[in-house]
From TrEMBL:
Gene: gltA
UniProt cross-references to InterPro entries, sorted A to Z: Citrate_synth-like_lrg_a-sub, Citrate_synth-like_sm_a-sub, Citrate_synthase, Citrate_synthase_AS, Citrate_synthase_bac-typ, Citrate_synthase_sf, Citrate_synthase_typ-I
Keywords from the UniProt entry: Acyltransferase, Transferase, Tricarboxylic acid cycle
UniProt name for this protein: Citrate synthase
Catalysed transformations (reactions): oxaloacetate + acetyl-CoA + H2O = citrate + CoA + H(+)
Active-site residues annotated for this sequence: H306, D364
An MF annotation (GO) of this entry: citrate synthase activity
Organism: Pseudomonas sediminis
Pfam families, sorted: Citrate_synt
GO annotation, biological process: tricarboxylic acid cycle
Length: 427
């Protein structure tokens, strides 16, 4: 895959020949690994033009607005697959047969409960703690409970940890919500499917078990599929970097959750609703658009823009359709926040500032509106992103560990002091 070469000429030196690697689809990459022999490094803060690894899991064409998992378009997965089948696909590379799917679902169900003692962990948190703060702590703490699957060099252990994480995330996420509400935590129900079980643990109580709406469960499942993976984003790269040191999978996923929390990444779904609240009314949109364009104002239009997509985010298109289905099911015909969001989208999409910079609505723009309609509190939005993304994180972690890899250790362009001595007299 390296039949092309690139030449790097550094003034006054012989040209350095660098292999050019070609993937299945997507741009070629220049392999700069041999550059250190010349005593030089590349400089690329924010990884604007750096491929940090080789991967076979997910492909994004940001110019065309294409997202493929193991080659399958996200739109087809959202329509024709379900979350657990997508999990199997991401983890194993192929769609499961009927028997493989049944076995996979059964294994996941086998692991839905958490160690009973894990509950005591929650009591250490304030009831008003942000659920993402609790998630970072509790998911990291899983490594203190499941010692029998921590040998990262054992493929069997890696598999069991992956299953445990996918199975337990809905339980932990719902426990986080119940803790904040002061309600009893609900045990998982293995007679329900993945999304139904999550909604059951979120909204039912021991004294009132209501049936879960199939339309809302289907929408929840779609939201999980749409968030399942997104190649080398900030949180996935964090998981890979943490994993490259040999850290255990629960610690790595906790690191991923922390990276996801930021408003530039997974925290944007919560931030979109906060922004819509702040804008308040259609009459204020122009003022906020002006703020978003002002370089001296830190305000950004949350839910707009993406590092890779310079076209529509295909997940946002599916999300918008799902949004209509959910609002229809719930009989919400004139939601003021949705109206505000639609108007904002319309104005932003025709504004030269946003057009010139290819700033389109991303997945987070609509997900918050659907989640809110389902009854999920805003503070849980990013938790749901983390729940769904866990399979992507763990697929990347497993992919890295199953091949040759090195500890991730970037270098730097140092611009601090040269060596200097402490002053002799410091009185
Ligand atoms: N509102 C206003 N201006 C924006 C926005 C925005 N949402 N996003 C980018 N820009 C401007 C930015 O100021 C810059 O302008 P200029 O060229 O004049 O300096 C230009 O567009 C390029 O943006 P950038 O910040 O260099 O792009 P990036 O790739 O570093 O950042 C981003 C990508 C997603 C962090 C950014 O677009 C953003 O902060 N968006 C809002 C937060 C958000 O919705 N995040 C969710 C991302 S999708 C879910 C996920 O994968 O986590």
């Amino acid at each position: 895959m390296a039949d092309k070469k690139a030449q790097l000429i550094i003034e006054g030196n012989a040209p350095v020949e660098l292999p050019v690697l070609t993937g299945t689809v997507g741009p070629d990459v220049i392999d700069v690994r041999s550059l250190t022999a010349t005593g030089r490094f590349t400089f690329d803060p924010g990884f604007m033009s750096t491929a940090s690894c080789e991967s076979k899991i997910t492909y994004i064409d940001g110019d065309q607005g294409i997202l493929l998992h193991r080659g399958y378009p996200i739109e087809q997965l959202a329509e024709q697959s379900d979350y657990l089948e997508t999990c199997y696909l991401l983890l194993n590379g192929e769609l499961p047969s009927k028997e493989e799917k049944a076995q996979f679902v059964s294994t996941i169900k086998n692991h839905t409960m958490v160690h009973e003692q894990l509950k005591t962990f929650f009591n250490g948190f304030r009831r008003d703690a942000h659920p993402m703060a609790i998630m970072c702590g509790v998911v990291g703490a899983l490594s203190a409970f499941y010692h029998d699957s921590l040998d990262i060099n054992n493929p069997q252990h890696r598999e069991v940890s992956a299953m445990r994480l996918v199975a337990k995330m809905p339980t932990i996420a719902a426990m986080t919500y119940k803790y904040s509400m002061g309600q009893p935590m609900m045990y998982p129900r293995n007679d329900l499917n993945y999304a139904e079980n999550f909604l059951h643990m979120m909204f039912n109580t021991p004294c009132e078990i209501k049936p879960i709406s199939p339309v809302l469960a289907k929408a929840m499942d779609k939201i999980f599929i749409l968030h399942a993976d997104h190649e080398q984003n900030a949180s996935t790269s964090t998981v890979r970097l943490a994993g490259s040191s040999g850290a255990n999978p629960f610690a790595c996923i906790a690191a991923g959750i922390a990276a996801l929390w930021g408003p530039a990444h997974g925290g944007a779904n919560e931030a979109v609703l906060a922004m819509l609240d702040e804008i308040g009314d259609v009459s204020n949109i122009d003022k906020f658009i002006a703020k978003a364009k002002d370089k001296n104002d830190p305000f950004k239009l949350m839910g707009f823009g993406h590092r890779v997509y310079k076209n529509r985010d295909p997940r946002a298109t599916v999300m918008k359709q799902t949004c209509d289905e959910v609002l229809g099911e719930l009989g919400i015909t004139n939601d003021p926040q949705l109206e505000l969001a639609m108007r904002l989208e319309e104005i932003a999409l025709t504004d030269p500032y946003f057009k010139e910079r290819n700033l389109y609505p991303n997945v987070d723009f609509y997900s918050g509106i659907i989640l809110k309609a389902i009854g999920i509190p805003t503070s849980m939005f990013t938790v749901i992103f983390a729940l769904a993304r866990t399979v992507g994180w763990i697929s990347h972690w497993k992919e890295m560990l199953s091949g040759p890899y090195k500890i991730g250790r970037p270098r730097q362009l140092y611009t601090g002091y040269e060596q200097r001595d402490l002053p002799a007299n410091r009185d």
